[in-house]
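Thread: pyridoxal-5'-phosphate complex, take 2
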Amino acid sequence: MSKKHNFSAGPCILPQEVFQKSAEAILDFNGMGLSLLEISHRSKEFVAVMDEARAIVKRLMKLGDDYEVLYLGGGASLQFLMVPFNLMKSENGKAAYVDTGAWAAAAIKEAKKMGPVDVLGSSKADNYSFIPKDFKVGSEYDYFHCTSNNTIFGTQMRSFPEVDTLMVCDMSSDIFSRVIDFSKFDLIYAGAQKNMGPAGVTLVVVKKSILGKTGRDIPSILDYALHIDKESMYNTPPVFPVYASLLTLQYLEKNGGIAAAEARNEAKARLLYDEIDRNPLFESFCVKEDRSLMNVSFRLLDETKKEAFDTAWKAAGISGLNGHRSLGGYRASLYNALPIESVQVLVDVMKNLK
Ligand SMILES: *Cc1c(COP(=O)(O)O)cnc(C)c1O
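Output below.
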């Protein structure tokens, strides 16, 4: 079986070298005569993995010692709740959100369970086809929450607003895909399975000084300060996803870091968007200026071509191209590990559709 061209939105393609090394570690980790899956998370071998996994994030993000890196379970969805629990004041607290897609809306829903939330902008009425930008974030809010990339609809924040409060961002689907000034953010989180590893672990990067100010009695498992104190080992961490994420980040660092990944991602996205814009059979779902470099959502203008197109891309060895069930059409996810050759295969199929 030859390797498919995997455009899946998540869990996503990872570098082949990461699959290879992960498989080896499952059979024999570091020549220990033991599988990675059967050693204690407190063994010196795994503690070294966790330490390096935390250190490499700070190196890649160019962040200093005022930031802490955590690897937690529960997915990005748990962060929808942990963020307000840890940052929204128990008395007279209030948070600001921007509603740019289904995941942003899910984050808003959870935050509302903790206290008042103002939604400063929303593109929901336009099927989330653009990023709302026309709002100001004042100091009356405990924090501002945004979603850097909208995985389902295929829009991306090209820039971030200046805010007068803490800045929180869900970067699940474009983390480490482009150069960003990460020091603008007070808290960043990302489910690993979109662009940095397998499912089962969530990266949290948090500025330590913002914690402990809400007056809430935070349950232990939801308390960032406790997880920091225990160096992501308050409870058993998801050892395999942490290890595979570390391998992915080491691969990224070895191959030119974030800047080089961004250049590759821009080239891939340009190749595909140019074809969508040129080809009269296809149309993009989103406004041009907000289109995502990671998730390219598009549709056929003539539905009678659907069968021919679906047959052709499947025959070309492409996998994971169907759009999200809420949007339909197609979605090509161009995460870091997807080679440009796979995008060329898709573009050739689109060009040959008559
Ligand atoms: C997938 C996704 C989530 C949810 O992640 P889980 O790890 O499945 O909870 C949240 N936010 C964004 C932007 C996503 O793409």
